[in-house]
Backbone:
């Protein structure tokens, strides 16, 4: 959350002064207009990273089949992003399993070669059945797509202690941690706790993995979440600082737009 309220056409600009990447989750619920996406581009520099999620009509309702019109509208809307479109994020429902890999293969191969694709799966077989995991990796490797892990291990390590954590327990996937990169641009989604210390302790694994990826020449993107997301921006900057302590060549984040003093009116 930003430290002070802003009009919609200024929010992303302020966010981009804190971090250099954002999850485009709103596109899951509705494809925005070209004008809206052009505004996102105008508010950010060309090297800012947007990971934009495909509409749920495509991934969850049509399950990647027979949604050509929705996909055309989505891809057209995203065109103004240009290089800012770091990845098109295909988040699949938990019911989408190994038997559906043929559908996924056919769907991914229809994208333009220039498209950067990232796939998030939630079916347990991909994490617990070695053969299913290898099959998915082969499908993704065929189009140079990344497998996006959503790490909720810290969230489910102990019972919830707040309303936001209790809500997360009912809605978030409970899956084993996975930290194998398939491409030169891995993407990680990490969910901590509402307690800052527990969130930081839980991300130690990812600090080390991210530093190792950077040393290998990869360009990782890590998104830090908490159940209430109240301090997500400051936590993301703290994570970045911890990685920089291990890999000093990493560019620092920009200086945040200062919060305006509170007013009565």
Residues:
């Amino acid at each position: 959350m930003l430290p002070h309220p802003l009009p919609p056409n200024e929010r992303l600009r302020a966010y981009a002064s804190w971090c250099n990447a954002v999850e485009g989750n709103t596109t899951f619920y509705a494809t925005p207009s070209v004008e809206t996406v052009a505004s996102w581009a105008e508010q950010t520099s060309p090297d800012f990273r947007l990971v934009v999620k495909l509409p749920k009509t495509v991934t969850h309702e049509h399950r990647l089949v027979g949604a050509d019109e929705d996909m055309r509208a989505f891809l057209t809307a995203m065109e103004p992003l240009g290089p800012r479109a770091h990845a098109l994020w295909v988040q699949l429902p938990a019911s989408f399993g190994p038997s559906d890999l043929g559908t996924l293969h056919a769907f991914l191969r229809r994208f333009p070669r220039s498209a950067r694709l990232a796939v998030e799966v939630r079916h347990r077989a991909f994490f617990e059945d070695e053969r299913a995991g290898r099959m998915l990796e082969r499908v993704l490797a065929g189009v140079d797509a990344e497998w996006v892990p959503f790490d909720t291990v810290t969230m489910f390590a102990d019972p919830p202690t707040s309303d936001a954590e209790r809500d997360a327990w009912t809605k978030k996937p409970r899956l084993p941690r996975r930290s194998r990169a398939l491409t030169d641009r891995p993407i990680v989604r990490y969910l901590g706790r509402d307690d800052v210390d527990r969130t930081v302790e839980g991300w130690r694994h990812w600090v080390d993995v991210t530093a190792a990826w950077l040393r290998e020449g990869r360009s990782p993107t890590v998104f830090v979440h908490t159940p209430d997301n109240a301090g997500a921006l400051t936590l993301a900057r703290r994570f970045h600082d911890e990685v920089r302590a291990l890999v000093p060549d990493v560019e620092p984040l920009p200086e945040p737009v200062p919060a305006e003093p509170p007013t009565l009116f």
Residues 1 and 230 are 6 Å apart (CA to CA). The first strand starts at residue 21 and ends at 24. The two ends are 21 Å apart (CA to CA).
